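Hey, I was hoping to borrow your eyes for a little while. There's a protein on my desk that I can't quite get my head around. The fold is given in discrete form, as structure tokens running alongside the sequence. I'd be grateful if you could look everything over and explain what you see. Here's the protein in full, and shout if anything looks odd to you:
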Amino acid sequence: MIDRPDYNRLQDALTKTDAEMSAPESHGALSGMFCAKGQVALADWLNQVFVELDLNNMLVQEASQLLVGLFKSTQEQLNDAGIDYQLLLPDDEQPLAERVDALAQWCQGFTYGLAAGGLKQDSDLPEDTAELIRDMVEIARAGHDDEMVDEADEDAYVQLYEYVRMAVLLINEELQPCLPVSDVKH
């Protein structure tokens, strides 16, 4: 089984390939595509991440292998009835400014992924979903001055992270509702 990649390893691999998206942005885009479509072809997502998906390039191959792990773990987490879904972001040991920037990139990728997944801006969405998407657009503009970081800033980041994480689960549930067990065909 292919595991979810480590953030730093994936970010380094994508940087070496001059990918279109960073690690958090690519995970956000994938999550948005899953929320919009329900099912996503791996190749469709990879074509969003890379300028040119050249699988003869060893660096692209390495990054693609890591992305396959991210694809599979994201698909499992979003299809799981539990709430184990996690955003791909830097560890808590990284500077707050880096984590805030990565969260902003993640949200930018998510809203991009919704559009790439076919969700139209003028779609008739449930009110909660529309509000959560507007919030994601605002969070994509977030930034933080690294000079003065205190516990309140760290707490605010944790709350924002959790808000985004739960928003994805709610958006996914409203756009891709689970069938009751009695409706599932065997």
User: Anything to note?
Assistant: Residues 179-186 have pLDDT under 50 and may be disordered. The chain is about 60% helix and 0% strand. The chain has one domain: 7-176. The radius of gyration is 17 Å.
